[in-house]
Q: What sequence folds into this?
């Protein structure tokens, strides 16, 4: 009985996510769902990506947090349209929450919409919101065992960004091990090593993203 209730919730969300996706597809709007543990660097990545690509494309952001509007305010400072969702305790965003923000955006004026999920390495991976694909960030301070311990998020993501590589001299972490452990869970992962602090690796990520946007347009 318990299992069927959970299945019903996921099936209901899948339907709403599919409807969201149909709206995005009609507008040729690429959407990705950005996930990580708290503080791995999601908002920092978006700030850097918006600035790097501002002459090439228009990007909107939906920010998901349990509480506060600080992330949406950070995005708004870059000039990009940003909407904050406060889940009031829920550990992930779902299709309905995303749909409730649609009236805030002019999708015709956007090339890319990013959904920054609630910081959490577990629940966001279980719920679709209508995205083309999921992207996750793991920072080098979190440990090489995370792919094995939290496999669903690695499994569901198309891209893994290994962030904070500027801190590698100070932490006991091997990026090679992170790569190996992540690819064991998901051999199709595209992996970029980046630092949102120094900017290292961000060109390769932005070039990849431009290619995805072009392909959808
Ligand atoms: N040294 C270093 N610090 C970073 C890097 N990227 C982000 N930070 C710092 O990490 C902290 C968290 O960054 P955020 O971008 O707010 O992380 P987040 O994933 O959006 O956090 P939540 O939304 O709260 O889950 C901030 O103090 C950032 O300045 C990096 O590449 N190197
Ligand atoms: Mg954030």
A:
């Amino acid at each position: 009985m318990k299992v069927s209730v959970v299945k019903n919730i996921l099936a209901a969300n899948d339907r709403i996510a599919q409807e969201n996706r149909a709206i995005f597809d009609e507008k040729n709007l690429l959407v990705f769902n950005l996930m990580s543990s708290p503080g791995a660097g999601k908002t920092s990545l978006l700030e850097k990506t918006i600035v790097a690509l501002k002459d090439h494309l228009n990007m909107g952001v939906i920010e998901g947090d349990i509480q506060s509007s600080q992330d949406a305010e950070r995005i708004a400072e870059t000039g990009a349209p940003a909407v904050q969702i406060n889940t009031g305790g829920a550990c992930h965003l779902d299709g309905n929450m995303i749909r409730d923000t649609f009236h805030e955006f002019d999708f015709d004026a956007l090339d890319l919409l990013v959904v920054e999920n609630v910081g959490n390495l577990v629940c966001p991976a279980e719920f679709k919101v209508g995205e083309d694909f999921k992207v996750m960030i793991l920072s080098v301070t979190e440990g090489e065992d995370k792919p094995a311990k939290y496999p669903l998020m690695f499994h569901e993501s198309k891209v893994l960004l290994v962030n904070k590589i500027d801190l590698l001299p100070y932490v006991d972490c091997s990026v090679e091990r992170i790569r190996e452990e992540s690819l064991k869970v998901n051999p199709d992962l595209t992996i970029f090593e980046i630092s949102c602090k120094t900017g290292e690796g961000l060109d390769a990520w932005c070039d990849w993203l431009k290619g995805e946007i072009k392909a959808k347009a």
